[in-house]
Amino acid sequence: xxxxxxxxxxxxxxxxxxxxxxxxxxxxxxxxxxxxxxxxxxxxxxxxxxxxxxxxxxxxxxxxxxxxxxxxxxxxxxxxxxxxxxxxxxxxxxxxxxxxxxxxxxxxxxxxxxxxxxxxxxxxxxxxxxxxxxxxxxxxxxxxxxxxxxxxxxxxxxxxxxxxxxxxxxxxxxxxxxxxxxxxxxxxxxxxxxxxxxxxxxxxxxxxxxxxxxxxxxxxxxxxxxxxxxxxxxxxxxxxxxxxxxxxxxxxxxxxxxxxxxxxxxxxxxxxxxxxxxxxxxxxxxxxxxxxxxxxxxxxxxxxxxxxxxxxxxxxxxxxxxxxxxxxxxxxxxxxxxxxxxxxxxxxxxxxxxxxxxxxxxxxxxxxxxxxxxxxxxxxxxxxxxxxxxxxxxxxxxxxxxxxxxxxxxxxxxxxxxxxxxxxxxxxxxxxxxxxxxxxxxxxxxxxxxxxxxxxxxxxxxxxxxxxxxxxxxxxxxxxxxxxxxxxxxxxxxxxxxxxxxxxxxxxxxxxxxxxxxxxxxxxxxxxxxxxxxxxxxxxxxxxxxxxxxxxxxxxxxxxxxxxxxxxxxxxxxxxxxxxxxxxxxxxxxxxxxxxxxxxxxxxxxxxxxxxxxxxxxxxxxxxxxxxxxxxxxxxxxxxxxxxxxxxxxxxxxxxxxxxxxxxxxxxxxxxxxxxx
Amino acid sequence: xxxxxxxxxxxxxxxxxxxxxxxxxxxxxxxxxxxxxxxxxxxxxxxxxxxxxxxxxxxxxxxxxxxxxxxxxxxxxxxx
Lengths: 677, 80
Known about the structure:
The structure holds two protein chains of two kinds. Chain A is of the alpha/beta class. Chain A has 31 helices and twelve strands. In chain A, the strands form three sheets. Chain A has a seven-stranded mixed sheet, with helices on both faces. A two-stranded antiparallel sheet of chain A has the order 7-9. A two-stranded antiparallel ribbon of chain A has the order 11-12. In chain A, a hairpin with a 2-residue loop joins strand 3 and strand 4. The termini of chain A are far apart. The model of chain A has no long low-confidence stretch (mean pLDDT about 85). By secondary structure, chain B is an alpha+beta fold. In chain B, strands 1-6-2-3-4-5 form a six-stranded antiparallel sheet.
């Protein structure tokens, strides 16, 4: 079968994922671009005996070398030379969208334009002459409504046709006028003499990029034998055109769009739309934040209420499987391994899946409707003051439910530094799994102050997150400077496309299963081993004597470290298990106190009190420690996945531990000073 | 012709023409790519100091931090 490679590109919010899903049937291979945290999606589409490999490029406004997204898209088109580049243009926002189109044409890409959102453009009263546009730009223009799959067959036909024709030479349709039309060909002809360079890259594009002082292109050309000549031309050009040629060229492109293209192919005024009316309320000074908080609360309830029964079912299902396995497997060790190690581990991994799925479903609904960008607008000022980005707010709020989807939700933050900073402070948001610990210790040793103690943990978490964000911003060179200022397009409000949204949520869930899931499973099996071996010493008849296990030995080794905090070996073991998942802490105490893992929290609390493990002061310190150090293995797994860096993963674990220790020690020391035990 | 002012000072629902974008090269170019070029007409759709602004430019709605909007110098269009 004939095979071609097709790249998809477009501004954000143009319906690119819908086109991708329509073409590939929603079946995509999701990975990362080599060495980058940016997601890469690929799928296939077979049409009329041709297999099209569809590569989804990052959504971008431009093709300069300034952001990773732009560079990835540009490098792919320049280096990999796909047979066809589908440029998705929002018909309801033609002027700005054509800017990217111009850059693609200059790049010498074999472009097919998709004029999407015809329905919205019509409802706004816009008339776009697709034939005229096609004539002016010398490329096929296919009108579509991707949400209703209209125009997709025509698009596939056009792509195959374009791949056969492989027309070249369209790059010169953009005339910059004098003196550019003399300078650009002059530099291009110099570059043409470097055969190696000119066989690989369109020289006119290189010449333009050199005029723009594009760093990547200058680096590329600096190895060429004609570099000195080129540099001479550049400094000559700068004498005539001034230092900032790039901005001048951007202006030129826009003026060609608005003065040459639009008058011929576009008709329409800009009426007051429903979007403007909604924005009056949703962005308003007084209503904006309350509406945002209400919507967030709805999202939160949706996620955790709807998913709770599913998570419960997963848990029951795997415990049952475990029970069945242990009744049928006669060998005790193997039975325990299968029941507690494998099925217990799988259960833990899969109980995370429903909240992740539903959260991303809700989030995708908010995003596709156009609201999420408004939320960033509303929260921007406050977050900026805290050294974070407007878009950091949503992940922080999600963190109160579960840090795993919260870390994944940072993907909406475009600049990597801001994103990693948000990821680093996110675990300080007290997730729902930490609540049972506060309740347990609180009831055991804080008496009437149990509720106040619990509440104060949430406040402490928020305060520390703010402090750490400010501290990292000031002290770590990578985060130096202010958060990237807000420049964000607010799309028109629209009804979300359900299928695209469902696919989106499912992809997120799969990413979690594949990457974070495997790490969690491995560690759970490791801990099963540590707490069950040496087998004979731990399993004395029916009784499980955890004091004899490797993990208890570990606890005793760790005890001296925790002694200044007033924690004994039991607390150390509980913290060790809490590293896997905070859900495990209560159960661990139960097992160590001889109650069995299924004991009620009230019973454990009473036993904890009578065993005298904690004083009110050390209890509070333990709660704070549990709040601050890394929430669970799943979070570590997802931090690694999302930062794509062991350095940041280890850093987040390490600073969490150090901070937890320092805060707990402060509580104990200060408490003792003022006379508490 | 009214006096040149920063976009951040322009009142809601008023229109203006950009005369200069001050600021670092990176910012100037990024704004230019989003459509904020000289002689472009803009309209402030939403402005609630000291929060960000919502500006209509070339048919799209762009949210701008107030700091950035201080660097975009405009001539207000009279009679609006």
